[in-house]
Structure formats: structure tokens, C-alpha cells
Amino acid sequence: MCLLALLREQPCYGYEIVQQLARYGLDLVSEGSIYPLLSRLLTRGYIESYLVSSTEGPGRKYYRLRPEGAKQLEQWQTEWDTFARAVECLLKGEQAHDHS
Amino acid sequence: MTIVDQEAQQQITDLVNACTGYWELRGIPLQRRKEMQLELEQHIEQAVRDGKSLKAVVGPNALAFAESWARETPHQFPRGGTVVLRWLVFDWLAYALLFLLIIALFEHLILRSPSFSLILAHVVAFAFIGVYTLLQAWSGFLSPRVVSREYRLRVAFGVYGGISLLVIFLLSLTHFPWNLVLFRWDWPVTLLLMLGASVLFGWKVWVGRSSRQKHRV
User: Fold this and answer.
1) Predicted ipTM > 0.85
2) pTM (predicted TM-score)
């Protein structure tokens, strides 16, 4: 979800994503673990990659969000909001809402 | 930001090569593999320039990292066959043949024996050569833990020595027939083997050179 949220802002390459996440305090156990995740998102069609050529050497692979990814992000965000609200209530000792 | 020194560059190259070899074995298509290789190389180089370690990028277990990436990447099954075959021909067979030639020539020239006997001990030695070439190829996975290439190869050799001694010890316990003769041949066959070995090594060198040139392009 965090990856999709980052890519919604702007296309990034792997190292850039890691740096952005670290800026939000989301340090990864190992930086490389971003790649299996990106690969999974690519396979599911949530993001796409493209090569940006460089004059100094080989091109760099960038990732950007696809419409399917944006839709998925919205859904995950709703789920996350519900979950976060529930946890917050629990921690504050508030009464659980009666859904019946 | 610091400049990547030669030792660090060697560390990166060994690690990236080990990962690429592993992905090839896992059946990841060439184009995708090249992209992964480039992405990993660029990431590690930038991380090292920013003062980070290889461990910070791939974690303490580089093989687990390579596997986790491979698992999330579309791959073909079964596809490791060609890789194994190439390893068998270019690495194992080439060195096994060289070993065979050295001992055959030793028997013919030094011991003045008109024929050479291939015994079971030689076959065990071939298996050991295979284990060593594999360990050497995979020593790149030690890069995050062992900085110097020399030490990485020493560790690989140490593991190899340990495995070899253990296998020899276990075989000795079973009264293994080390001297059992499997084949026997005369001079002309040894000459043919010499010819075969030189063709194979020539081919190996040529393929290695052309792939390095392609990599540069």
C-alpha cells in the first residue's frame, strides 16, 4: 500500500523509493526487499515499469502507478482507515460500536 | 557520497553475478534477468556510494534475497536444464578432463606405463571437482559477509575441503573399492583426450570472451 501511495505521487526508481520510505520513517529490514514487492505489484498489474535512458551509462528502470493500482490503493486505504480507527478506539479504551 | 573502490566494486560484481546465475537456474527469462541484474547493480552501487553496506541492501543472507525476488518474478519450469548442461560442459567437464589428462600423462611419461587405468578414485575426484566449481561460482553470495574476494574463495575452499574430507572418511568406513579399474586405455586415446580438452578449453575461452564483449556493448 505504501509503495502504491508513493508511486501515486510520482514515478520513482528502486533506490528512490527506499529513500522516500526512509524519509517517512519506514526503514526496510533490507533495502533490496523492495524488489520482490515491486515485482509482485508488476505481476498483478498495479504498476508498470519503463526505462529512462541516461547519457552517463545504462538506463534506469522507473515504476509508475497504473489505473488498476490506483483503484486497489483506494480499496486498501479504506480498509486501512477502518482498521486504524478500530485500533485507535481499542487503545483509547473507547466502547466498541454495536454493528447489530 | 564516496567513490566505490576496487574491492567494493569486486564485491558488488561477485554478488550480482551469483544472483544472476541463481536466477538463470530458476528459469527467469533472459530479458527480465538482465533488468534485475542492472537494477540490483545500480542500487548497490548507489547505496555503497552513500556509505551503506551490501548487507543493508540484500540482508545477511544474499541467497534468500535472490530467491525471494525470483519467487515474485514470472519464470518458466523446468528451465534449469540448459544451465546445468552448460555448467557440466564448460566448468565441470573442462576441469575434469584436465585432471584426467594430467594423471594419464603422469602414468605414461613418468611411470612409463603403456596404458592408463581409470579407477573409482578418479571418479570420486571428478565429483569433488564438480563440487568445487559449484562452490566457487556461488561464493559471490558470501559478499555481504566477507568483503575480500580472496577470503571468499578461501571460505569456499575451506567448505570444499571439509565436505571432501567428510566424504572420503565416510567412503573409507564402507570399505570403498578405491582401486577398482573401470576403463583402461593406451597412448592414442590419451592423445585424443588431449585434443578434446584443448578444443573444449578453446571453446570455453572464446565463449567467455564474446559474452564479456556483449556485456560491454
Assistant:
1) no
2) 0.68
